[in-house]
Amino acid sequence: MTSYTAPVKDMQFLLHDVLQVTKSDVAGYADLDESFTAAVLTEAGKVATDVLAPLNAVGDKVGCVLENGVVRTPPGFKAAFETMKTGGWTALDCDPAFGGQGLPHLMGTAVGEIFVSANMAFNMYQGLTHGAYSAIRTHGSAEQKATYLPKLVACDWTGTMNLTEPHCGTDLGLMRTRAEPQADGSYKIAGTKIFISAGEHDLAENIIHLVLAKAPGGGEGTKGISLFIVPKFLVNEGGSLGARNAVTVGKVEEKMGIHGNATCVMNYDGATGWLLGDLHKGMKAMFTMMNEARLGVGLQGYAVAEAAYQNARSYARDRLQGRDVTGAKNPNGPADPLIVHPDIRRSLMDQKSFVEGARAFTFWAASLIDRSVRSGDDAAEGLVSLLIPVLKGFQTDRGFDMAVQAQQVWGGHGYIEDNGVSQFVRDARIAQIYEGANGVQALDLVGRKLAQDGGKHVMAFFDLVKTFIKENEADAALKTDFLDPLKKASKDVQAAAMFFMQNAMKTPNAALAGSYDFMLMMGHTCLGLMWAQMAKAAYASMASGDADFLTAKLATGRYYMARQLPATAMHLARIESGADPVMALPAEAF
Ligand SMILES: Cc1cc2nc3c(=O)[nH]c(=O)nc-3n(C[C@H](O)[C@H](O)[C@H](O)COP(=O)(O)OP(=O)(O)OC[C@H]3O[C@@H](n4cnc5c(N)ncnc54)[C@H](O)[C@@H]3O)c2cc1C
């Protein structure tokens, strides 16, 4: 069976050596001293290792079962959910006004990684609840906040997001679910939503569905869409639970992975709902939460890869096959461990350098969200909105690749189900699809985010990279191994952006055909920037810190710069080949 240990030391390095949180002017960061964050992360690690990780395989094997309209989660999930609630883990970064602990989103993100690595499917019940909490907190009336937020923060009630319909996934303008206004100010919601994560289950006494639907007078396409609160049980004045609402689960989907999370068809048969935010502005309301939600999915990409990597690393140390070509390392045994072989090392280095780089990128993005929300910093908000499609698309695609690489280290023993490794591959796959499929993230990046506010945010990103390089160029060790490769990658990305600017107006397909490559080259460059920053911090701490740990950090960073970052040149060449090679065949020739 697989195992998991929280990477507390790596997280502490990011929080204190790289981001230097206690020196930050963001509200609440000064309180995040080393002993406090170590205590929180270590405790979260214990819950992850002792409670959540042992349920990962159970969730995968047993899955969720629908019987007589009730969905049963896998054995042990209910008790584990209670542990999360009583430990206050569901309330960590929520507003104290509603029972939360008020910690920055950065801490919620670090702890979230630990829980997702241990059991992604389980953590989704709480993750979606946090999404509903954020939507109601941002767009709800005072009464809605008072009614729903304390219950969602405590996870006594859980939340869902209902966008998708059978004929309407990416293109939400095709939505058919209707909302008819009633005399008392409520709406009657009618329609079918599919693929709704945590749509029905037995972990909470009520489920608060946030449902996108079309109300009269809004016009065609996405403009007419509004967002509604539709509780499973209606809530009486005073907060007690009332009648069952007309929303039922039609089916629990059989699927490739995350079996422990109930993916439901939800039928709304004139269910009572209340408008959340402004009428016909539902898409805007959804979009304000998307940075947080997409960061959460991008996190799933590397968090599952981290768990897979940990298990590949232990297997590579234990499994005896072949001999080291430079001389036996286990001369008294029948063979050497896999880890002596350079190709296994390559695979482990790919995994390690990706996971640690992606963690740094995600923590940085979470800190930008804190800066924008807590300090009202528009530049931070602009930067994070540019980078979120990169973080989501790049990290989930690479995260899946790394889970496959980890499985490959196990050879055939990773493919059969006995050892639990194939679950990482199956679970990681969905993160590439939901919360906007990755091809669509790339379109969002190139079609919307690059030109947003006159291209101000992408220019700010290029400036940030340039300034970091300039400020540190005098450091010879940093320059050769880290800054020069970063400069080259950044130039490739700028050349690609220039190609889009020069060609997109007259040949829109030239930009669209290159959008996916652009997302990947941006991702590599972000991780290159993260590794350069981590290298700077590692050199700075070398005299006082754990030299073995810091030396390993530097070697891992050098690997990324030498072996991964040069991919930007290939992506640039693809982009500059334009749309012709992609669109050469007529549709009927496929
Ligand atoms: C396990 C699971 C859980 C989910 N949870 C939820 C949930 O909780 N709530 C919810 O509302 N939904 C949920 N979803 C739905 C998910 O968000 C959608 O499946 C996803 O957004 C893609 O929509 P689709 O499947 O209809 O694909 P489509 O929109 O049909 O897209 C198919 C493919 O075409 C590509 N594509 C589409 N349009 C374009 C374009 N204009 N240009 C280029 N490429 C394009 C896409 O990238 C994709 O690769 C879940 C799905 C699954 C499988």
Strand content range: 5-15%
Q: What is the terminal separation in angstroms?
A: 43 Å
- Count every helix, treating DSSP H or I runs of 4 or more residues as helices: 18
For the residues shown, what is the average pLDDT? 97
Tell me what you see in this structure:
The structure is a single chain. The protein has 590 residues and is of the alpha+beta class. Helices cover 57% and strands 12% of the residues. It contains 18 helices and eleven strands. The chain has helices at 8-18, 34-62, 77-86, 105-118, 120-139, 142-154, 282-318, 342-375, 378-409, 412-415, 422-429, 438-449, 452-472, 476-503, 508-541, 547-564, 567-576, 580-583; strands at residues 65-67, 70-72, 157-162, 178-181, 187-197, 206-214, 225-231, 233-235, 241-244, 247-252, 263-275. The strands form three sheets. Strands 3, 4, 5, 6, 7, 10 and 11 form a seven-stranded mixed beta sheet that branches. Strands 1-2 form a two-stranded antiparallel sheet. Strands 8-9 form a two-stranded antiparallel ribbon. A hairpin with a 2-residue loop joins β1 (65-67) and β2. α4 packs antiparallel against α5, α7 packs antiparallel against α11 and α9 crosses α13. The two termini are 43 Å apart. The relative contact order is 0.09. Bound molecules: flavin-adenine dinucleotide (FAD). Residues 161-164, 169-170, 195-197, 255, 263, 430, 433-434, 436-437, 439-440, 443 line the site of flavin-adenine dinucleotide.
